[in-house]
Amino acid sequence: MVFVGSMAGFRGSPYNGAYNAAKAFGRIFSEGLWYEMKDFGVDVVEFVVGGMRTPAMARRGMVFGPEVADPADVAREGLAHLADGPVWVSELAGGMPVAEHLNSFPRPPIVTEAADGLRAIGLYP
């Protein structure tokens, strides 16, 4: 089982609170389900991705920089790590160092950084 996660699930951000919360829920749900299903030989992984060059992001006005991944590359990586649950953070999204940073304390700088980043790529004013 593959759940598609997001770096957004590691921190709150303005104008995306419900999305961020849903992605955080998905990660926690995947972790529990991974443990419950492992004795049955069922792989469960939440594959955490970062920014991708998708039509949906283009419609939102995202400014694509060099750090934004191609969906085909992300899909290949995700399929290669099906058995690496409960959570795999895409290397194309910065990998575990980025996820660890987004999960760090104190929280105000992390949330402010998220807001500044979203504003810089044109996702909100």
Short description:
The chain contains five helices and three strands, in the order E-H-E-H-H-E-H-H. The protein has 125 residues and is mainly alpha-helical. It has one domain: NAD(P)-binding Rossmann-like Domain (Rossmann fold, 3-Layer(aba) Sandwich), CATH 3.40.50.720.
Domains counted in the coordinates: how many?
1
Which percent bin holds the helix content? 40-55%
Mean pLDDT: 92
What CATH calls the topology is Rossmann fold
**Fourth-level CATH superfamily:** NAD(P)-binding Rossmann-like Domain
Spatial arrangement of strands, main beta sheet: 1-2-3
Number of strands: 3
Query: Any idea what the CATH architecture is?
Result: 3-Layer(aba) Sandwich
Q: Give the SSE order as H and E letters.
A: EHEHHEHH
| Number of DSSP helical runs | 5
Task: Report what the structure shows.
The chain is mostly helical. The chain has one domain: NAD(P)-binding Rossmann-like Domain (Rossmann fold, 3-Layer(aba) Sandwich). 46% of the residues lie in helices and 10% in strands. The protein has five helices and three strands, in the order βαβααβαα. Strands 1-2-3 form a three-stranded parallel sheet. Helix 1 links the parallel strand 1 and strand 2. The chain is globular, with a radius of gyration of 15 Å. The model has no long low-confidence stretch (mean pLDDT 92).
